[in-house]
Amino acid sequence: MDLWQLTIFVNVVEKGSFSRAAQAVHLSQPTVSSHIKDLEEHFGCQLVDRMGRKAVPTRGGEILYRFAKRLLSLRDEAQTALAAFTGKPSGRLDIGGSTIPGSYLLPLIIGRFRDSYPDVCITLAVGDSRAMIQKTLDGEVEAAVVGAPANDKRLAEQKIAEDAMRLIVWPGHPFAKMAAVPFERMAKEPFVLREEGSGTRKSLETSLARAGFGVSDLTVVSHMGSTEAIRQAVKARLGVSVLSTRAVAQELEAKTLVAVDVPELSLDRAFYLVTRRQRTLSPLCAAFCNFVLENASKI
């Protein structure tokens, strides 16, 4: 077993296909299959189930995948540390971002960061806050920016920027002509809610609790797994929702959606940079975190 074989194995798991993994690592499919077979013989168990054209990790494969990601991450950290030592910062950095910062904040920061570090390759994983926090704990990413506090003693978290959330409606909705809407009226409207685990939902739940309310007070007609899905649902008049104004900035400017205040609810929130406390950051990650802390609030 070597790191190259683990790289191939990780690509098979993540691509879900031997052929796509072969393309990613620039090898033939039979060669990829041979490396996976060698790993299976080394560990004495099947690691990947071939299900038609799909490659699915077995339980043993899932265990190896977690360790393989950590080993490959350590390899990247070693390369980055030596690059920093020689005065030529380079290498790969794996970071995470929950839906809003991952889609609307981090791409801008990454672009500006690479102006100073052009030889750096940054991989950005995007998911809900809970998933990104778990990836940070598991070592799959070195740092993540999320839309709600982690509240986990294993993590260090730093507030980096503010975010304004508002009640979002379509232009023809009765609320669209109002500067503010009482919570009692909002609660009676069909409401589209983010899934559990998202920072947007957690922030909304916190805001409701501070005002003495709960999600059960809303007339929820649908749960959706992404901000984009909710944005389209509001446009389709399925219901109203509370979203980050960053996520609907273009629609607000074009007046295809309207943001409304709810006086009883303090909907503003913050974004947080999280890292694993007991993990020494690579020089590249440390440089990136410092850059985030200095620049996130300016974007």
Helix content class: 40-55%
What gyration radius follows from the Cα positions, in whole Å?
22 Å
Count of DSSP-assigned helices: 11
Mean pLDDT: 91
State the strand order across the main sheet.
Answer: 4-3-5-12-6
Strand and helix order: HHHEEHEHEHEEEHEHEHEHEEH
Q: Specify the overall morphology.
A: globular
Q: What is the structural class? A: alpha/beta
What's the story with the biggest beta sheet?
5 strands, mixed
**Oligomer kind:** single chain
Strand content: 15-25%
Number of strands: 12
Task: State the separation between the terminal residues, measured CA to CA.
Answer: 45 Å
The low-confidence parts are none
What is the topological layout?
Elements: H1 3-15, H2 18-25, H3 29-43, E1 48-51, E2 54-57, H4 59-85, E3 91-98, H5 99-116, E4 120-127, H6 129-138, E5 143-146, E6 155-163, E7 165-169, H7 183-188, E8 190-194, H8 199-210, E9 219-224, H9 227-235, E10 241-244, H10 249-254, E11 258-260, E12 269-276, H11 283-295
Parallel strand pairs: 3-4, 3-5, 8-9
Antiparallel strand pairs: 1-2, 5-12, 6-12, 7-10, 7-11
